[in-house]
Amino acid sequence: MSKGNTAQRIIADHWIEPHPYGIYVKPADAWIDPMRAVDTALVTHGHADHARGGHKRVFATPETLAIMNLRYATGDEGHGVPYGESFDLNGVKVSYHSAGHVLGSAQIRLEYGGETVVVTGDYKRRPDPTCAPFEVVPCDVFITEATFALPVFRHPPTQEELGKVLALLEAQPERSVLIGAYALGKAQRVIAELRALGYNKPIYLHGALEKMCNLYNSLGVDLGEIYAVADAEKADMAGHVVLAPPSALNDRWSRRLPDPITAMASGWMRIRQRARQRSVELPIILSDHADWDELTSTIREVNPREVWVTHGREDALVHWCSLHQIKARALALVGRDEADDG
Asked: In the predicted model, is pLDDT for residue 7 greater than 60?
């Protein structure tokens, strides 16, 4: 029997039921982050391993609904849920609370039969100028991600990592720095963090990043001067930062840049082999997920009776919980890959 089937059997008598393609809230007849089209979906955030089109009814934060409409053409049928507001779904009290992952990302708090469950989706604890900070929500059952749930993953200070970019530009002003960054969340955070460090020059974008950056601007996240690479002359981009999706770092498109230094912003850059595989000259360890210490400290702060773990290094976090006398189990949902949104 697979690990996922074991988890389903163990929790079969609970009102929250894990399935390979999502988490089912039985009394509400609703699914959290389902990977298949359903009648009622409660969505934590807009990344493709949590959100999709085709649902009949969607509950999410207004920002997530806007992101879903841009990415998946979901239309206006969604129900916007601001942070902290609650609503009733067939006797289940539901509220959304900031996850600090990307703009509009939320933890979903569910209360039923005297028990409280919090589904985190993805989250981080570091400050991020592009989204609201993580909110600690006490609960009985805490369903946490585990993307970087190994002790080797301890993210360095953000300012130090992006300071390397500014130092390179100062030392080699005739070149550009091309940073690979995931289109939703990471690209906008890199821009905003550079602005916070005093980088006020124009930043140039691959065409695949333009619409999401423009949406962030329209939702109140000021990214400063951003321009399309397609509209710029090669010489104009010398001494500047250029952002592109990771898939574009080493393709022909990059030839239009002035002698680019190839960089990538991801928590996975902690692993040197990953940087070498992508021919990355400047690994930037910058993650939109909690690291090992932040995952374990969050569990301590939330102080749940039980922890359910999904999306990543499940076994290591379950083992840590057992060492600290916290009941825990792995859910092993499908579709939760180690994507470039690390």
From this structure: no
